[in-house]
Amino acid sequence: MDFKKRESRLRREKETIRKMARIFCKAHHKTKEGLCEECRALLSYAFERIDRCPYQEEKPVCSACPIHCYAPAMREKVRQVMRYAGPRMFLRHPILAVLHLLEGRTGKIGNGKA
After folding, report:
1. Domain residue spans in the chain?
2. Distance CA 33, CA 40 (A)
3. Distance between CA 98 and CA 16 in Å, rounded?
4. Residue 45 to residue 21: CA distance in whole angstroms
5. CB distance 84 to 24 below 8 Å
6. Residues 9-68: pLDDT tens digits?
7. Backbone CA torsion sign across 85, 60, 67, 11
8. How many CA atoms lie within 13 A of 27 on its CB side?
9. What is the rounded CA–CA span in Å between residue 40 and residue 29?
10. Long-range CB contact pairs, 6-14, < 8 A, 24+
11. Where are the alpha helices (DSSP H) in the chain?
12. CA angle, 81 then 86 then 89, to 5°
């Protein structure tokens, strides 16, 4: 995967988790705009994990990755966010939702599709 495609994919992955965090935070923490402190911290942590992924060139979606670089508590929080926001993404951000779903199904290390 060339640099431009990788950067685009990582940027899209960050945008997807940002949108999911916003959907979750608005519903669960009743924020009007932006994110609460807890959700901002989770998003910052997720971005750091994406940036430090050892598979940078061929990064799979985190759920398909053989390495679990999230701390267990943070991993569970991200799961909660995705479990809630995932289905809602199809209505609010359908293109990001479909791309994320496709990457999750085809995003295996080494196949060049991640």
Report:
1. 3-106
2. 12
3. 11
4. 12
5. yes
6. 888 889 999 999 999 999 999 999 999 999 999 999 999 999 998 887 677 777 778 888
7. negative
8. 13
9. 12
10. 6/56, 6/57, 6/59, 9/59, 9/103, 9/114, 10/50, 10/51, 10/56, 10/59, 12/96, 12/99, 13/50, 13/59, 13/61, 13/100, 13/103, 14/46, 14/47, 14/50
11. 3-28, 37-51, 72-92, 94-106
12. 120
**Mapping DSSP to helix (H, G, I), strand (E, B) and coil, where does residue 81 land?**
helix
* Token couple for 62: 């985190």
Residue 114 contacts residue 70 (beta carbons within 8 Å): no
Structure tokens at 4: 């431009």
- In the chain, the amino acid numbered 101 is L
Residue corresponding to tokens 């295996």: 108
